[in-house]
Amino acid sequence: MIKQTKYIRQPIVSVLGHVDHGKTSFLDYIRGSSVADRESGAITQHIGATEIPIDVIYKVCGELLKQQNVSLPGLLFIDTPGHQAFTTLRTRGGSLADLAVLIVDINEGFKPQTYESINILKQYKTPFIIAVNKIDKISGWKKSNELLSKRIASQRTNVKTIFKDKIFELIGILYENKFQAELYYKIQDFRKNIAIIPISSKTGEGIPELLMTLVGLAQKFLEEKLHNEIGPAKGSVLEVKEEVGLGTTIDSIIYSGILRCNDKIVIGTKEDPIIAKIKALLKPKPLDEIRDPRERFDNVKEVHAASGIKILSPDLDKVIPGAPIRVVQDNIDEIIQEIKNQTKIDLELDEQGIVIKADTIGSLEALIKESRDKNIQIRKADIGNVSKRDVVESNATLDQLNKVIFAFNVKILPEAKEELLNSDLKVFHEDVIYTIMENYDEWIEKKKSEIELKRRKDYIHPGMIRILPEYIFRVNNPAIVGIRVLAGRIKNEMKLINDEGRYTGRIKGIQSENQSVNEAIQGEEVAISIDGVTVGRQIKKDDILYTDIPEKDAKKLKEMNILNIDEEDILNKIFKIKRKNEKFWGM
Predict the structure, then answer these.
(1) Does domain 354-458 have CATH number 3.40.50.10330?
(2) pTM of the predicted structure, to 2 decimals
(3) What is the mean pLDDT of residues 214-229?
């Protein structure tokens, strides 16, 4: 049995941000700053992660950390695609990332994946800092190795103005998203304010200050959390991959304990957890050798947290990204139950609603939360590609607004595509959750308008008009008069009644500015021709007339809740008028 002792592990730092805002170039700069010397402290490339030892951080930071006594062994950056890695790297109810860096292009500002990243960080309550990248692209920016306050002061007046305006804009957006933020050197309490650190991944400006801030935050606020037991490993699956010559492998982050070759592990799947024996632990060569195509991986005997590793084992096909990994010894039943609990999505499904498909447990949870926040009903939520069955099930719903599939970062299978050809189903197929929700909002408004328009065509709607006394053009055969639509709408062929419920003719035609139109709505003044009446007998100047709604239409309109306030008011008046002659009309 392994003796249980503790050591401080390196914090896991996830890098998030919009595409092309500089996530990879930020890490590339750090990696490139120390690899060339092949020194013992050189940065190590893991699976989906980059390990920056503390001596490398000391070297990059220089004077900033010279007098600091740092107990951390370094930082482990997760550098698979931003938000996807963050939601995949998960534990029950939260992310395994200890800290996060949100990269924002200073010239482009917040973009869809930036907003998505903010929402995910908020959901998982993960401490983060903001790296405002590409300051070198501000027109006229002068590079300097001074600290930020002096670098700003050394810029020309117009450059300072541009810089401050852009930072102020970012602070405003963050405030709208319920975050207090400020340039890092102005912050008194890092628990209450998000640190903004301007950087350039191209020139390296600000990166020493960023690393200093990350180390300082981890050292001050996370040290207790980072005490790690030397015991059986715990980890999380980042990606499931097919490797030529190896078969199905899993790229994983080990965040606690030690993982050894030949260990027996339990891993989560969509169904019951699987038990597997590790055949090999594969680690990429150090970065200065990783371009050598002859030998891609080192076969290692063990790996300590926190670290990234590729695991080779039989029967990994059903493993899902985001699933937990546990080394099992003599507590297999307990571990299996723990894994089941962690892969279970806490969700009460609705009888009617949309279908959600996502690539990982974390991204599925994020989509569910976004949907619930918008009061969207969900009838099915699952991990995996969109299948024919998903399309058939979604298409079976009666509500047109629920004929929807959210497909995040998954494939639409060929049979599903074929089924979609004969369907009016709407699929939102994106690799950005924010974009799915934004496109859905736009679609739902249009769809509601279409449905309302169709419903309006199906039923005679309430309308109330006044005959304008100064515009009597013909008294009969047909009567032609000017009217104002006081509320609701009128259409050709609608019958009219007065406030006693008596028939006052049928609208034969509507003209607006000498053009024939099919309808007129509230506030419009038009001329109408009315069959079957004579002005001065059945209708008079200044009369208020109402559309004559059939009883079945009136009842349906009352139930359907598609009228605006004014239309509802007219409908209620029509009910009262009709009940003067027929007591139970519309009941």
Answers:
(1) no
(2) 0.70
(3) 86
